[in-house]
Amino acid sequence: MTRRRPEVVAFDVNETLLDLGPVRAALVEAGQPEGLLGTVFARTLMTGFAASMVGDWFPFRDAFDAALAQESPLDDDARARVVSAFGELSPHPDVEPVLRRLVSAGVRVVTLSHGSPGIAEAALGRGGIAPLVSATMSSEAIRAWKPAREVYLWAAGACAVAPERLALVAAHGWDVLGAQRAGLTGAWFPRSERVYPAVYEPAHVRAEDLAGAVDALLALPA
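^ that's the sequence the OP posted. Answer follows.
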């Protein structure tokens, strides 16, 4: 199938758009190693994915807290302070230019996360780019985690476009794979991952950075 230029581009939130530096700093302040964040974040995803596979669900915040309890000796209060640092996130420096490019090209921009509602809105506002985003969507609204097919189809319906006219940009290969299996156009670039997982079907779009991913989507035939 020939991919077409999307009418709407959805962006994953954590790591793809937002810098998790404040959460990493909160872990260090709590006496934990800086590298612990990657381990906890991965376990958070594993926890959510496993629950989804058996028909269960819980919020990202609870999954992160549970993962942090498994991977660190922090008590309830210390973990709560680390989790609260998600409310301090800001966009990466390369985010604003690509969002402006999409909006200037007449393409709607949305965010799609399974994270806690309000995190994306606050961070985009902190970065001064909230007006560039027409909708911030969390799959908590349908009690599901990406990469479940239903999340991407729900997003397409919420945007009032056919799945093939919605693109997902993510720095996580599993997210791109889920989007593509649901009929969306997937675009991957390295930020949280060094390479795209070789065991997955190829991403429709692969680029060296966020700007390259967006440029490639805009270059698709209308």
